[in-house]
């Protein structure tokens, strides 16, 4: 169903297989999800994506759960079905409670509504909201 | 520049003016931003939007700053310039640090990238990500 | 501000100028809006766009005002500022009342909200909604 | 396939079950579609969504069929597969003819095309289209 | 699963069946894909779409493979699953190599990321980028 | 107008200023555009974005002009005004002719139209388009 074959460990180029192992080590699981198996055709793209994702999602000024909530929100608006599923699962794995999930949904819905209203009305930005 | 005139307190219907006053009281400021002034033509829409927004953004299982970060993320992907400005300002007002802003940007960018890759590759969802 | 110069009648290729005149005749006005002046660099694209638009927006099973309301809805979700402005103006010219405009906004907002919720929840389509 | 289990009447919280009954009564059918069953985990979100939807889609300055056509248009551009299916079905239930459906499709397609052209060209809004 | 039945040659209106034959002749294959079978309910829309597509995708200042790459990019960002599949197949039929596919993916991902960053930051356009 | 101040060379952190110099050297110009000046608050994000962009847009299996055309297409559909301007300028700098620009526009418009039609019709993917 993908536009490229999903590569098993056997079929993946050696460089990609090594990244599969890094993913397994970092996530403490044997499971490598389909996204990486689709990217594995291009070890350079797989490398760049995995390395950057690891940096971006690491604990920092925002905690990893908050980052996953933001990821779900972005994925929803971009209409990426795969990403909504995988990052909702990731948020749960990081401790998202049903109540937090419900509030996340409510904020995504509300923002999408007011985004549409502001765009349909072409509301000009108040000068005090402008930083620069 | 809006598709309707922005209504001053004088020009707004009485019902909308009363909501302006609720907004002022809730936010402890005299300032009513343009979004509400554009909605004020339709007191029913203004009422429904303001009431629901107040409920959704109130403290709950997620704290108000996290909700604003999610709001900025949604507004960005929906391409709502007004909303990006107003909710970035709101996030700052709730204490978003420059470091948190930078990480928010990095997550939005990363998610948009992997969303595009997963869609371009039409990656099928791994069975284990499916709840139902 | 456009990515190409907007062409005046003097600067436009003869073929495009002739289409400007068709637009004026069809709309019973001297005014040719910027969209057509930007397209005028490519008479073939201008021709195809104007001819098809005229067919699609003509009275048929849906009346022209309803078509303009749909056009505003699509333009809003696509985030096309120019198109929101021009088709809101066109809807008014075809008789859209302030009450109709307000309801249009409410439907666009509501649909955008439930679209986001259904996507975030990845709700499977009920079999009875499937035609085929 | 949803990111939450779809709740049967038995599994839904009492408050949500009561809303299922309101939906049945309003629609004069025993059928409650999956969207509501997914929302039912959060009775507050289900309540707010159902109540507001009922108000927004009620007959008013626009008739209910026109509102459904607009809903389909918004859902299409937002890429919500579930919503395209359910609201196309709803439009048919409200009397949408095949000819009206065909014209709806043509307008959605045309608008999406000119939206993209206007954005790619970054056409500046003509002053006469600006209300405010 | 479509919102209209897909029409076989037998069920399609004569005018649409004739266009199926044009598609077969142009593509030197017996196969007519589902997109055209769904459009076939409205011969006028089918005609307009097929004719215009044939013109737009013909060799010109850009070669047909480049046009298909652009088509895949647009389809990805619009989240059109059908179109991503069909135009990825079309690009392969026109000679897209795995290396070109991988670079296409990398550019789509990179652009989506910087688009999101520029929107989240609301970066003002540098005067030198403005043509008009 | 940005949501952060645009940083001059004087105000930028040393690490970001060094990247400004890399940009100048790579592009053989003194000009550093606003996108980089907005990102400069976060040297890590600036570094990751610039390095990856340089790799992705380098000559490879696709030539740099083709990559810029794809970038313009993605930026258009994402509705990123800044990016449409900057990458249209970049495409011109890499030799995009007016004829190529016109064909790029026509393909973007056509794809957006058929994307919307396929989504509104929810056309199921033909089995032969599926790789996996």
UniProtKB/TrEMBL annotation, chains A, B, C, D, E, F:
Domain Carboxymuconolactone decarboxylase-like: 43-124
GO molecular function, one term: peroxiredoxin activity
Gene3D superfamilies linked to this entry: AhpD-like (1.20.1290.10)
Pfam family name, one: CMD
InterPro entries (alphabetical): AhpD-like (IPR029032), AhpD_core (IPR004675), CMD-like (IPR003779)
PANTHER family named among the record's database cross-references: CARBOXYMUCONOLACTONE DECARBOXYLASE-LIKE DOMAIN-CONTAINING PROTEIN, SI:CH211-175M2.5
NCBIfam families referenced in this protein's UniProt entry, alphabetically: ahpD_dom
Protein name: Carboxymuconolactone decarboxylase family protein
